[in-house]
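job 3f2a | input accepted
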Amino acid sequence: MKKFLIPILFLGIHAICLGQHPPDHSRFGALLWKYRTDGRIFSSPSLYRHLILFGSEDNYLYALNATTGALAWKFKTGGLVHGSAAVQGDKVFFTSWDGNFYAVDAGSGKLLWKFGTRGEKRAGTKGLWGMKPGTEYMDDPFDFFLSSPAIDSRNRLIYFGSGDGNLYVLGMEDGKPQWHFPTGGIIHTSPVLSDNTLYFGSWDRYLYALDSRTGKEKWKFETRADTSYHLLEGIQASPLVYDGHVFLGARDGYFYALDAATGQLTWKYSANSSWILTTATAKDHVIYTGTSDSYLLLALDEATGKEKFRTTANGYVYSSPVIAANTIYFGDFTGQLLAVDRISGDVIDRLETPGRLKNGDSILNKGKLDFAYMTRGMDLANYTTTVIGMNKLYRLGPILSKPVIDKDVIYFGSADGCLYAVRLVKP
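job 3f2a | predicted structure (427 res):
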């Protein structure tokens, strides 16, 4: 969002099937279970054996039985858990807004060790994006995610970014720090490890490539700056490494393809001043990513960046897409989960959260997110208007969580505080 910024019925879930599609596509079936927490869920779920792991704004990391939704254990931190968990062996690793990095036992949820950074920090500044009053410090209301860890199983190392501007490397067994790399901005992106190179973005606008063993910088690539309002700048999306390239969207309104070895630009795609916050995915030499203000899922040719199709959702797309067979699944900010044909971009099915079913007619403009419509009569230049608007949107149960699929079940979190498990069925 920004325009001014320069802003089922199974007692809840409702699926809408749209037309006939080939048998290698799945649509949304029955709600199998849902588990309610006491906070919004922005974290993406992770699977570990029979468990589904995810974090919540109630400060807990949860482990549920993936089949039944029953609680196996939960671990309390001192802050919001917006990052996703990584699992190696019998250890679960994750970050929290309390500034700590945690390792807990995957079977019991007991603390193994924790590492304290220099403190977490949300993006923000006085008079954010030119909003009023200019003397007031304003948190960026779209700084949703924390860095999720990358694991080097061979060298028993774990990597993650922090709001203190550092990329940290810890020993997996005891959390002992190995080295850290300072940047000029908050790091809420998740690092990616490939061929002894660590790739990650920072709010200082740079994508970095480091030697994963020494921390020595190999190269860095600068995305665009916005010297007027600082609205269209910074990196919030995590990179994708695929076929010798690094693919990355940024808040500057561009999606980039860089040579993984050199950092040289191969091509860039203009999203027409729309942020790109999602982590891209790829299949058969096509790159898929979502946009913010234009509400799009984009399919781009890997070699050229040429647009193959665009699919329009009903609100901001901050949920990173996941592919199963020939179907792409992703959520939007109006509380819809969409299933899209990977080849044509046609929408196969939509699933609505209970909040969207209950509040959509009063909040949305003909089913679409329209910030000006939702806050009509209010001053869009005022930061308070943005806060009020965001709180209205949260009543829809937005889906920012990247779904995960296992055994014909799709799992996803919602800002309504629930984790959902929904059966996928073939026609």
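job 3f2a | Residues 260 and 380 are 41 Å apart (CA to CA).
job 3f2a | closed
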